[in-house]
Amino acid sequence: MSVKIFQHIKDALGNLDPNEIRRHTERPMRLFLYANNHDAYRRMEDFFSPPHLSDGKRAELRHIIHRASEGVSPSESHDLEIYFEDSPESLPSPTRTVFAFTPDDPQRTIGDVLSHRPDLAIPLALHVHPFREEVSKRIVKKVARENALFSLATAIPDIIPFISLPWAIGEFASDTAVLTANQVRMAFLLAAASDRTVGYREQKGEIATIVAGAFGWRALARELVGKIPMGGGLLPKAAIAYAGTRVAGMSLERYYRLGRAYTRAERRQAYEDALERGRTFATSLLDRVKRK
User: Fold this and answer.
1) 278 contacts: CB under 8 Å, gap ≥ 6
2) Which CATH code for domain 27-124?
3) Alpha-carbon distance 54 to 60, whole Å?
4) Model pLDDT for residues 24-45, shown as the tens digit of each residue
5) Sheet with 30-34, edge to edge strand ranges
6) DSSP conformation letters of 214-263
7) DSSP, residue by residue, 71-121
8) Are 123 and 61 in contact (CB under 8 A)?
9) pLDDT tens string 241-276
10) Residues near 65 by beta carbon (within 8 Å), at least 6 away in sequence
């Protein structure tokens, strides 16, 4: 049985193309700043181009982050415009959505941009360091939810046809194969957001860990399920899919950020928290399905 599932995983991975993520990551983008005085410009630049960055990275950002006073104008859909909160008069007549930079709460700007321009999430995380952590969190959350949804979809296909999910990988693949392949896709996205090289060869260690854990994390999660009252059989299945994906993603994010993944003890603790989150999400999904 294990050999068959591993073959399914291999077949499913053959449908993932890291080149698509590379092409999206490498799309050009520019960040335009608007303010009415030098101090306001400096406060925005110090946030978006922190002093702790290397000289090489700061030099790279000089081609991406522009002051409006430099005479360069945005012209493409991938250009992003941000103005200092107290100086809206510095803006020209906007032709697209612009965002306010709040110096007392700059993370609010990060959230606003990512909520309205998800198409720029990976390029922003790659080039503009303050976006990186939030983008990575959103990638993990999104893929964990996708895998929980897939688990419910395959259990009740007449209600949620899984073929409607854009990342579903053919009828040949087992649930384990699809969930694992989606975790590998998550690894590609996290690497791209973290300024790491994307690809099967370049990420062979991370991919091997995900594939090897395709059985181990489920066994541990099922052991922990007994600690969390979940009701019927659908909820544990979806909660386990959510938890395994979330913990794999969180561990990868730490690895790319700090150079070390979760320890076994940290992983176990993270599973317990993720299972509870997965149960809550799966319950809300099932409730919506029942109402429909």
Assistant:
1) 144, 148, 238, 239, 240, 241, 242, 243, 246
2) 3.40.50
3) 10
4) 888 888 999 998 889 999 999 9
5) 65-67, 30-34, 79-84, 99-101
6) HHHHHHHHHHHHTTS---STHHHHHHHHHHHHHHHHHHHHHHHHHS----
7) T----STTEEEEEETT-GGG----SS--EEE-TT-HHHHHHHHHHH-GGGH
8) no
9) 899 999 999 999 999 999 998 988 998 899 889 988
10) 30, 31, 33, 45, 48, 49, 128
- What average pLDDT is seen over the chain? 83
The C-alpha atoms of residue 146 and residue 290 are separated, in whole angstroms, by 19
- Provide the pLDDT confidence category of residue 228 given band limits of 50, 70 and 90: low
Task: Report which residue type is found at 258.
Answer: L
Where along the chain do the CATH 3.40.50 domains lie? 27-124
Tokens matching residue 189: 């996205």
* pLDDT tens per residue across span 127-146: 999 999 999 999 999 999 99
Residue 153's CB is within 10 A of a number of other CB atoms, namely: 22
Please, what is the angle between helix 18-25 and helix 175-193, to 10°?
30
Q: Which structure tokens are listed for 67?
A: 């002051």
Beta bridge partners of 41: none
More confident site: 69 or 124: 124
Q: How many CA atoms within 13 Å lie on the side-chain side of 236?
A: 16
pLDDT at 201 over 80: yes
DSSP 8-state symbol, 48: H
